[in-house]
């Protein structure tokens, strides 16, 4: 991979027409170590956030020894990056053949369920393979109510009484049992974890079976940019959030059991920026070479404002407008799909023109993992960059990716 000091150097050297992901492995490792230093248990990186081999490898080098996986492709990616890493198969709804693959081929012994039919599938595989259920920890996923930017409890999780039943059934069948939840992504309110811990405590007391662990899931927020025309969102820092979580874990007496967290976004968001090129400027509209079907997928980045840096093409000799004036541009994506328009503007100097580049910061989470091959556009160029995004001078602009929803 080619290395550059910063994205501007990469853009001006390569003059890329395709989007370029700027990978900062040292930022990734530092953010992983920061999380591990703050969380009083095992850190299992959520592979879906960004499962690129370079990411998994750098995380293994940083000391991440466990990975939250959900599919055979993720088992394989983790195994390729780190032969010794532990995998936690935390998808509550699984194909029986995938459970078999997990247990038989990948030696996975930690698994999540939220329904009795999932226990049936698991038990069929355990019997067929003649595995002692006592060597498997089954985490029962409980429903939580949260205030995350992305709420996930509508989809997964057993209600408290149901979770009690599942724990007892698993315990009777000889499994080790734990409790897990996932409060959603980019959570803003520290109370969210506390509420989940309170339900976990209720379930534990009712079930009255020994617990082998508690998994608090992911959801830890990454710092992004903000729109200067709006009130800055009040986000607790990771240090504050973690201090609160540690105090809550202590208060609800979970500190004496093995703890797991499954961070995704907070670990990899800052490790990448993205260089996009302006294919065409048409008035206050920019057509860029990325979009909602590539790295700017609305489904996950939908409520986030990303910092952006203008990289003017020095080959453009004459420009119209005032370069110190920052104005909103409507941004159209690369595909021919009419929905491929970001519904919130990018704010850029008035002088931006066809051929210029824009570096979008903090794009490491839920970007390249969600890109599609729609219309034949599939950004897949990577360079390594050494300077962290924030150290490259204040970004003069920002890309707000918020959509209709
Ligand atoms: C997506 C997911 C995560 C990671 O979430 P982040 O908000 O990126 O930290 C963790 N656990 C589970 C079960 C998930 O589905």
Model description:
The chain has 405 residues and is α/β, with parallel strands linked by helices. It folds into two domains: 148 residues, Lyase, Ornithine Decarboxylase, Chain A, domain 1; 223 residues, TIM Barrel. Strands 3-4-5-6-7-9-11-12 form an eight-stranded parallel β-barrel. Strands 13-14-16-17-20-15-18 form a seven-stranded mixed barrel. A two-stranded antiparallel sheet has the order 8-10. α2 packs across α3 and α5 crosses α6. The longest helix is centred in the middle third of the chain and has 17 residues. The site of pyridoxal-5'-phosphate (PLP) has 17 residues, from α10.
Question: Main attributes?
Answer:
binds pyridoxal-5'-phosphate; De-COase2_C; Lyase, Ornithine Decarboxylase, Chain A, domain 1; ornithine decarboxylase activity; 20 strands; elongated; 2 domains; Ornithine decarboxylase; TIM Barrel
Summarize the structure.
By secondary structure, the chain is α/β, with parallel strands linked by helices. It has helices spanning 7-14, 25-38, 53-62, 72-81, 96-104, 116-128, 160-172, 191-207, 238-251, 265-268, 298-301, and strands spanning 3-4, 20-23, 42-46, 66-69, 86-89, 110-113, 137-141, 148-150, 176-180, 185-187, 211-215, 259-261, 272-282, 285-288, 305-311, 326-332, 341-349, 357-360, 381-385, 397-400.
Q: How many structural domains can be distinguished in the coordinates?
A: 2
Biggest sheet character: 8 strands, parallel, barrel
The CATH superfamily of the largest domain turns out to be Alanine racemase
* Extended strand count: 20
Q: Report, as a whole number of angstroms, the end-to-end distance.
A: 38 Å
Beta-strand content: 15-25%
Mean pLDDT: 92
Radius of gyration, rounded?
A: 23 Å
Low-confidence stretches: none
């Amino acid at each position: 991979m080619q290395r550059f000091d910063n994205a501007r150097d990469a853009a001006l050297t390569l003059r890329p027409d395709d989007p370029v992901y700027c990978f900062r492995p040292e930022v990734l490792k530092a953010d992983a170590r920061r999380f591990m230093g703050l969380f009083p248990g095992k850190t299992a990186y959520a592979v879906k956030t960004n499962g690129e081999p370079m990411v998994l490898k750098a995380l293994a080098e940083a000391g991440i020894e466990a990975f939250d996986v959900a599919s055979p492709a993720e088992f394989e990616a983790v195994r390729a990056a780190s032969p010794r890493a532990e995998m936690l198969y935390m998808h509550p709804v699984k194909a029986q053949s995938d459970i078999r693959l997990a247990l038989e081929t990948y030696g996975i012994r930690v698994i999540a369920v939220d329904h009795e039919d999932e226990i049936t599938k698991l038990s069929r595989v355990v019997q067929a393979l003649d595995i002692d259920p006592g060597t498997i920890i089954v985490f029962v996923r409980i429903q939580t109510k949260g205030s995350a930017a992305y709420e996930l409890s509508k989809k997964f999780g057993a209600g408290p009484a149901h979770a009690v039943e599942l724990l007892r059934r698993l315990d009777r069948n000889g499994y080790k049992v734990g409790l897990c939840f996932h409060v959603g992504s980019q959570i803003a309110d520290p109370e969210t974890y506390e509420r989940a811990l309170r339900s976990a405590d209720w379930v534990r007391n009712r079930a009255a079976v020994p617990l082998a662990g508690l998994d608090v899931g992911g959801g830890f927020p990454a710092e992004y940019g903000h729109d200067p025309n709006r009130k800055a969102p009040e986000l607790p820092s990771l240090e504050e959030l973690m201090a609160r979580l540690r105090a809550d874990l202590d208060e609800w007496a979970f500190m004496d059991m093995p703890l797991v967290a499954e961070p995704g976004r907070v670990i990899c968001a800052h490790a990448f920026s993205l260089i996009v090129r302006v294919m065409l400027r048409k008035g206050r509209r920019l057509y860029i070479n990325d979009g909602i079907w590539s790295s700017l997928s609305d489904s996950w980045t939908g409520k986030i404002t990303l910092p952006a840096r203008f990289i003017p093409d020095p080959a453009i000799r004459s420009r119209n407008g005032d370069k110190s004036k920052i104005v909103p541009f409507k941004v159209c994506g690369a595909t021919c799909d009419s929905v491929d328009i970001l519904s919130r503007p990018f704010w850029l100097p008035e002088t931006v023109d066809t051929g210029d580049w824009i570096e979008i910061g903090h794009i490491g989470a839920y970007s390249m993992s969600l890109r599609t091959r729609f219309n034949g556009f599939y950004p897949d160029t990577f360079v390594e960059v050494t300077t962290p995004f924030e150290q490259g001078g204040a970004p003069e602009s920002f890309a707000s990716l918020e959509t209709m929803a």
